[in-house]
Design brief:
9 helices; binds heme C
């Protein structure tokens, strides 16, 4: 009671109490605008997901890029061609496919012995510039120039491709 008495005696507080409610400010937090905010953050989330998927590469697009490798590599089976099979190559040590051990260059086997593992970053560098990443290796391929192609083909190799 003492409190309300003080409120009524204070002119500033009285003024605040008597002022019409600020409907405009209130409408900003109405359920409608909250839904709008939720909807727009959902679309931002979707956009972010799409961008992340892009950054991680698209296996379906990568299957097309792999057409440039297929003369020399099999990815869906462990059959070697001119090059070693690439089944499960993501995470594999360079120069270590059992069935191809007699065919790797010394450079590729040496790189593996020195610790080169085909994680996504190393694969990306190798596919961009094979001769720079593993000097002296015998892959007769100039490299992929397009970063999207590289990300996509790695996504394809990583997705454990089926024929
Ligand atoms: C003209 C044939 C040829 C083409 C085309 C080719 N490669 Fe190769 N690739 C090879 C050979 C041969 C090796 C083994 C190199 C060595 O031992 O020095 C190799 C090695 C590799 C390795 C290392 C494998 C391991 O076991 O260490 C990867 C990864 C690879 N190639 C990916 C690709 C991808 C992806 C493409 C297509 C974008 C491609 N290559 C295109 C012939 C080719």
């Amino acid at each position: 009671m003492q409190l309300s008495w003080r409120v009524f005696r204070n002119p500033a507080t009285m003024q605040r109490l008597l002022r019409p409610r600020p409907y405009k400010a209130d409408s900003q937090s109405s359920p409608g605008s909250a839904m709008f905010r939720a909807a727009s953050s959902a679309s931002i989330l979707l956009l972010a997901t799409a961008l992340t998927a892009h950054a991680g590469g698209d296996p379906a697009l990568g299957k097309h890029v792999f057409n440039r490798c297929i003369a020399c590599h099999e990815a869906a089976t462990d059959r070697d061609k001119v090059g070693p099979h690439l089944m499960g190559v993501v995470g594999r040590t360079a120069g270590s496919a059992e069935s191809f051990l007699g065919h790797y260059s010394e450079a590729m086997k040496g790189a593996g012995a020195a610790g080169l593992v085909w994680d996504e970053a190393n694969l990306a560098e190798y596919l961009k510039a094979p001769k720079l990443k593993v000097p002296g290796n015998k892959m007769a391929f100039a490299g992929l120039t397009n970063d999207d192609d590289i990300a996509n083909v790695i996504a394809y190799l990583k997705a454990d491709p089926k024929p």
